[in-house]
Amino acid sequence: MAGKYRFSFGPWNVHEGADPFGPTVRRSVSFAKKLKMYKKLGFDGVQFHDDDAVPNMNKLGPREIVKQAKEVRRMLKDEGLTAEFVAPRLWEDPRTIDGGYTSNDPEARQYAKDRSRRSIDIAAALDTDLIVLWLAREGTYIREAKDSKVAVDRLVEAINDMLAYSGNIKIAIEPKPNEPMDHAYIPTTGHAMALGYLTTDHKRVGVNIETAHAILAGLDPSDEMGFALAYGKLYTVHLNDQNGLKFDEDKSFGSVNLRRAFNQVRILDKYNYGTRGEFVGLDVKAMRTQKIETATKHLSNSREIFLNLVDLVRSLDEGRVEQLIADRDYEELDLFIVNHLMGR
Ligand code: 3MF
Ligand code: MG
Question: Which residues have CB under 6 Å of ligand 1?
Fold first, then answer.
């Protein structure tokens, strides 16, 4: 049965526009004001970094952290919003310069584990059981800096620690091949899922597939999604778009390659994504040129493009597709799909 979709984004998707070569270009918007934007833009779910919910959490004890997270839970309730996931932000602290779970420094590794436990506490207080792990600095700039076998052992150890700390949580690994590192240890969906099977409870480890991250790995995002769906491990998605192999652009969904976006929506819709409670998550950035008054259009536009593509997916003449497949006339199928995207 064709599902209805619920959408989510993270507060970092409304941002000041700084990049590595220039300062901010827009005023900061407070977290409370951001929350007020969600419903107006058509969104029901909030993605959190742990310190989006509890800023300065490193300076607070576990009880105070939970207390503050519960206040955020109340704010969400007032706005009619749901927390989708919490992700430990392990890439900003001076202790994690060389990575968190895979750092060569045992104190840094311990910090990463402790911080991950606090993220799990925050997730419980926000009433979500989903933890996302974007393994930002778990990689290297040069091959000789870390041992890649040991790195995987350490990632497993850290995930096991989280699974043991809470019997309720599910962990969605968000693979990305590069940036900020030269090479990340868990670059693709296949790596992330294989890592899950090394843990003590693989049934609770899946993936968050981001369009741009798959493209940066030279892969097709819809095929990555199909792979995870075949294993029942597509816990969430980060839809966006990416124009070739350059920095991680986080463009509006479908804005670069409409056919690639169509195929992502097609595989999600075909296999009832969303009917098991999954959100359609976005991870999109406003262009730096955008004025503050209109710096949320990347969110509403991505949602609109997704929903328009759902209509296109559901109105595709699947009988004709099957016939062309049976005839092995893929040239005609190619034209048929492009014409469909052009509304013809
Ligand atoms: C980086 C990302 C991250 C993660 C986020 C959730 C800042 O390329 O995609 O966005 O999605 O940290 O864990
Ligand atoms: Mg992401």
Answer: 12, 49, 87, 132, 134, 174, 176, 210, 238, 248, 283
User: What does the pLDDT look like over 2-57, one tens digit per residue?
Assistant: 569 999 999 999 999 999 999 999 999 999 999 999 999 999 999 999 999 999 99
Q: Which domains does the chain possess?
A: 7-315 (3.20.20.150)
Say which DSSP state 116 is in.
Answer: H
Residue 242 CA to ligand 1 centre (angstroms): 14
* Rg (alpha carbons) of the chain, rounded to whole number: 20
Quickly tell me which residue has 């409370």 as its tokens: 32
CB atoms within 10 A of CB 78: 11
Number of residues assigned to the chain:
344
> What is the distance between the alpha carbons of residues 212 and 249, in angstroms, rounded to a whole number?
7
For residue range 146-203, list pLDDT tens digits in order.
Answer: 999 999 999 999 999 999 999 999 999 999 999 999 999 999 999 999 999 999 999 9
Of the candidates 321, 320, 309, 290, the one whose C-alpha atom is nearest the C-alpha of residue 14 is 290
CA of 174 to the centre of ligand 1 (A): 8
- Counting ligand 1 atoms within 8 A of each CB, the residue from 130, 132, 283 with the most, and so the one to mutate, is 283
pTM score, whole prediction: 0.97
Phi, psi of 76, deg, nearest 5: -60, -45
Select from 179, 171, 159 the least CA-distant residue to 100. 159
Query: What span, in angstroms and rounded, lies between the C-alpha atoms of 335 and 53?
Result: 48
Nearest to 284 by CA among 255, 264, 246: 255
pLDDT tens string 260-319 = 999 999 999 999 999 999 999 999 999 999 999 999 999 999 999 999 999 999 999 999
Ligand nearest to the CA of 248: 1
User: How confident is the model over 237-265, as pLDDT tens digits?
Assistant: 999 999 999 999 999 999 999 999 999 99
Residue type at 340? Answer: H
